[in-house]
Design goal:
The protein is mainly alpha-helical and 105 residues long. 78% of the residues lie in helices and 0% in strands. The protein is built from five helices and no strands. The two termini are 15 Å apart.
Length: 105
């Protein structure tokens, strides 16, 4: 029950970025989180093998952070967000990610 909440929090963070839908890499990352959120909501934890497989798939999907970093570099280049804002945003985002990975493990 906690995992979908964590993914929803990150979706909200992504959607709170200015013009997130106009930044292709941020939009792609958001779409990955939406897909994972939906999969978690539909997953059946009473089937341990299937649930574990689904968690592995989701975790693998989110291993690469280059899309997120690329998107935030675009914000910096366009001066939509300053370096401090970007660093603080990334800190919050990755703290959520680490705590989610701990729940999955």
């Amino acid at each position: 029950e906690e995992l979908p909440v964590r993914y929803a929090q990150r979706i909200n963070m992504l959607e709170a970025l200015p013009n997130w839908h106009k930044t292709k890499s941020i939009e792609l990352v958001r779409n990955m989180y939406v897909q994972s959120f939906k999969e978690l909501r539909l997953a059946d934890p009473t089937c341990p093998e299937e649930f574990t497989r689904q968690l592995r798939t989701i975790k693998t999907r989110h291993l690469h952070t280059n899309l997120l970093v690329r998107g935030l570099k675009e914000y910096a280049a366009a001066e939509e967000l300053g370096e401090v804002e970007i660093n603080e945003w990334l800190d919050r985002f990755f703290v959520l990610r680490v705590s989610t990975n701990m729940l999955i493990s």
